[in-house]
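User: Here's a chain of 785 residues. Predict its fold as tokens.
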Amino acid sequence: MLSKLNWLLLFLFIFCPKNFSQTNGPKEQIVEKLNNYFALERENIHLHLNKDTYLSEEDIWFKGYAYNRKELLPFYKTMNVFVVLYNQAGIKINQQLAYSNTGTFEGAFKDLKKLPSGNYYIQVYTNWMNNFQENESSIYPIKIINPAKTDFFDTTKSNLASAQIEIHPEGGTLVYGITNTVGVKIVDMFNNPIGNLTAKLRNSINEVVSEIAINSDGLGKFIVTPKNDPYSLTLEINNKIIQQTLPNPSTKGLSLEVNCYTLNNKASVKIKTNATTFNDLKSKQLFLVVQQDERALLFDIALDSNSLEQNIIFSTENISNGVNTVRIIDENMNQLAERTIIKLPNLTQKFTLSKKTTNTGTIQIEGLSSQNDANLSVSIVPANSIATEKNTSITSDFLSNFYLIKPIKNIDLYQTNPNTAKKYELDLAMLNQSKSKYSWNEIVQNPPQPNYEFDMGLTVKGRVLTPTLKNAKDYNIRFRAFHHQINVQSPITETGDFEFKYLVLKDSASVDFSLLKNVEATPLKLTHTAKITNGNREYKFPFKGFNPTDLQQTTNSQILELPVFEDDIIELNTVTVKAEAKKNMLTHANTMENRNLRGYKISEQETMNLLTFINTRGFKVSDNGMDVSITVLNSGSNIPARPEIFVDNIQIRDFSYLQNIQMNELEEIYMNPNALIPSGRNLQGIIRIYTKKPIYSTLKTNVKSSELANGFTTAPKFENSNYNSTLSQGFLYYGVINWIPTLLTDQKNSSQIDVPNFNQKKIKIIIEGFTYNGELISETQIIDL
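Assistant: Prediction complete.
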């Protein structure tokens, strides 16, 4: 596969061959500016929520997906992810540090019973995101309904009293004396669309020049030729006239007219100007740039001296899926016009789901994927649920919303079975983006610098308080965490400081620190200041919330019948399902170390030896009878990497130890050849083996243990709420049937989805995820039971 830089340069050679004979010409400068600005890898994180409207009796379940925008792959190196729950005033309710492994993480917000009804927001970020001028975090709106008082002021409902008109000339400038396409956006103070209206364009004497249809998303556009006569737009809402004056036309500038919706696999960009601007620009080189991050196409611009226009048509097959920015750049690196466009991905169905009933009457959905090595999460709700309406898909986030200042709330509706009408509506949304998220001035003048660490695991720092060390180099600090099988040592600086990096520790883990003299084995008494230093990072763009004064309005929420909960009731059907599942339940699946590893329950009848089993599961095993080599192809290079292998939580460094182990001696195996290991030693892949009779026992210590705060939050195992009835209308509106945070497809690209028997006739299954080679998966299907 071509690297992204080679991809860019390839198209530059195709479209601009003669200019590469020059040294440091404007095209090379544009390439250099884009490459420099997007040189640092950027993380984007999509959060798949099991639904988006919750009762305070329920828990909020989520699965996160980290994506490397430079490589268009899962961000395997991402480890430390902060997930924060806010109320709509911007007050932090809860914060968690999630442990991301092979690009995914999972968790839950629990204990919501005391929260009042209202809108809440979940923000997801990493420390590395602080390096960028743009807000690269993810924010997801949810609702929490407290049955004790369901009324609240809902900021996601259109507020007609605060309606306002936004005007967006295509290209960014209203140019004097030529036809301009102008976008119109009608929103309220909370950026909710107000639609299905008719706006009127009026001249200076209040005559109606034209009427503009505003669609259901509050969007429209019109054409105007501005001169000295000022124009304004008016709307009538609830017998009230709202007016917005158009900006004064500029005597110099470029106007754009972009069409991405009528030509098959092509886009056209018409560049227009007036005589004054043409005379200023005719001696300058101008370029059309179509770019997403560092990936770009460049075209020469030569305006016709008579029409003062040029129309450039290009194949959209040569641009990235999702949002791209069209820019007009001059030879001095000045931007003269810009406009966002979107290329819809080919969203073919990737999963075939079919019902399968077991002999015990439990229900399974068998899924057959067209993609290899998929890492998925699955939400199952009643078919007519209204609690999943605001979820955005992984494809919409990674390809579109993360490139916009104001994400498009219902973009998934446009992307499902797109036709010309849907493409037109989506193009209206792009036209009415106020500006590009990535400012050209910033790209030219202010490339980001890596001033904030890319956290890969936890860092523990401390200082020795006592005893006083005369020769600190003769001592080490030993750090142990038995639950996590950590036993490491650190040198001590002359000032008494020590540090441990790349640790994976659950929050409030039990650990101990020992002072050891290099030639002695007995620990010395020690007092210290050790703590986790990167477990509570702040983000420079926290969710701000809304002005409390603006929130003091009459309640407008409309809550339908709610489900009823019984703390002690247990559904008999659910008991049957759980009892059946326990027969093959993986014992060690829910530990932090094994999350995102594929687990195998080993039967007594298994006759294969262990090395053969490993060799058939994505690892390469070489056994010459004496020495054993186990490797996996490194995802970041072509150099074979060694995996980490553990037997009963003890790391095995000599792989020949595994030669004579038979599978029927083992209880379970967990493995993932794609797991990255934060060590700097070319390690990739994890194999964790559990024997029926553990070979090793945990060492005991007399050193006093302590707890370290601000570690990784342990992801709880999913437990559904105790609904009084799964047939009530309240359950059908808001209930949860199942949540499966991690589902890995097997070697046949198939998977089994468990469905508790809640006597539903139809269910809605929402599948999100990606493959290890970066294919995005988002499916919503209704299944008859």
